[in-house]
């Protein structure tokens, strides 16, 4: 037992010395390759390598002797040092560390579930009918023939009329118009006119206005546009070359009316036009102003 212990102690001491020499050899190699150590140290490096080799051989011999000892003593054989793993060298006393970024593996099932949840949260906004081709033109406006059944003065505004209008919808709409200065009240009663029907309803001095009566307009004179003879309540107004696809309600933020309005004018014959093309009711005729020609339609 005593001889085995001595052999083991000797082997461990030799192995420790071998490791020290190995570290020193590696350190000198790093310094030599980096230019820190002068070339004159090359002889010392070779000497250390040779001593390292000798000690390595001695360790192997001691292990062989130790492993031949009595197995009954249950002495655990020494394992050979792993020379395949590089020793981390020191340069000027600083340990050069190598780190490897760990990869995080996410199960495919988890990634798939997250993707499905994200997709489910995306809501698709239904497009308005008039937004199908993205065009902004007169086709987005809902012009229709309506009949003013009764008109009266606004109770809180001297310049406004309040009209009850039949557009063939089964119920009347309330329309507020600033026509007091231009159209006598008696001329507002029981007459056909053209209305823009898809403006967003808005209050005018406390009364909600649900459409707009279309007029030929100058600063000094305003005339309500007249539908052609034979027009009926609810007739649709069209413009050749522009598909009629009105929005249900014009979005004020998109400023569709403000974009189209500058191109609405009467021509030299008094016909209401969009970019020079007349507004008309199929099979019946054009929308006209009685006397105002070449003026804005509002």
SSE order, one letter for each helix or strand: HHEEHEEEEEEEEEEHEEEEE
Biggest beta sheet attributes = 5 strands, antiparallel
Question: Which secondary-structure class do the elements indicate?
Answer: alpha+beta
How would you state the average pLDDT, rounded? 81
Proportion of β residues? 15-25%
Q: Uncertain spans, ≥5 residues at pLDDT below 50?
A: 98-102, 122-128
Distance N terminus to C terminus?
117 Å
Question: Which CATH architecture of the largest domain would you pick?
Answer: Beta Barrel
Give the beta-strand count.
17
Radius of gyration: 49 Å
Helical content stands at: 25-40%
Major sheet strand order:
5-4-3-6-9
GO biological process, one term: translation
Keywords: Cytoplasm, Protein biosynthesis, RNA-binding, tRNA-binding
GO molecular function, one term: tRNA binding
Pfam families: tRNA_bind
What key phrases describe this protein's structure?
2 domains; OB fold (Dihydrolipoamide Acetyltransferase, E2P); 26% helix; five-stranded antiparallel sheet; 298 residues
């Amino acid at each position: 037992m005593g001889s085995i212990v001595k052999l083991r102690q000797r082997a461990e001491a030799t192995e420790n010395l071998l490791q020290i020499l190995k570290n020193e050899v590696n350190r000198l190699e790093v310094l030599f390759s980096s230019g820190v150590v002068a070339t004159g140290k090359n002889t010392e490096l070779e000497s250390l390598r040779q001593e390292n080799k000798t000690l390595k051989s001695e360790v192997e011999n001691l292990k062989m002797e130790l492993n031949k000892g009595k197995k009954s003593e249950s002495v655990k054989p020494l394992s050979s040092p792993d020379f395949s793993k590089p020793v981390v060298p020191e340069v000027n006393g600083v340990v050069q560390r190598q780190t490897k970024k760990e990869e995080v593996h996410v199960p495919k099932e988890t990634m798939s579930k997250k993707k499905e949840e994200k997709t489910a949260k995306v809501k698709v906004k239904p497009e308005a009918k008039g937004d199908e081709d993205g065009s902004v033109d007169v086709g987005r406006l809902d012009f229709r023939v309506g009949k003013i059944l009764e008109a009266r003065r606004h109770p809180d505004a001297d310049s406004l009329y309040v009209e009850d209008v039949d557009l063939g919808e089964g119920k009347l709409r309330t329309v507020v118009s600033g026509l007091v200065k231009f159209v006598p009240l008696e001329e507002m009663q029981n007459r056909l006119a053209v209305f823009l029907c898809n403006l967003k309803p808005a209050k005018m001095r406390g009364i909600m206005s649900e459409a707009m009566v279309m007029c030929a307009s100058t600063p000094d004179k305003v005339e309500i546009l007249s539908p052609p003879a034979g027009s009926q309540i609810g007739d649709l107004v069209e413009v050749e070359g522009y598909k009629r696809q009105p929005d249900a309600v014009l979005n004020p933020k998109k400023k569709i009316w403000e974009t189209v309005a500058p191109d609405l004018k009467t021509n030299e014959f008094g016909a209401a036009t969009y970019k020079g093309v007349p507004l008309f009711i199929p099979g019946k005729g054009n929308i006209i102003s009685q006397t105002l020609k070449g003026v804005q339609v509002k």
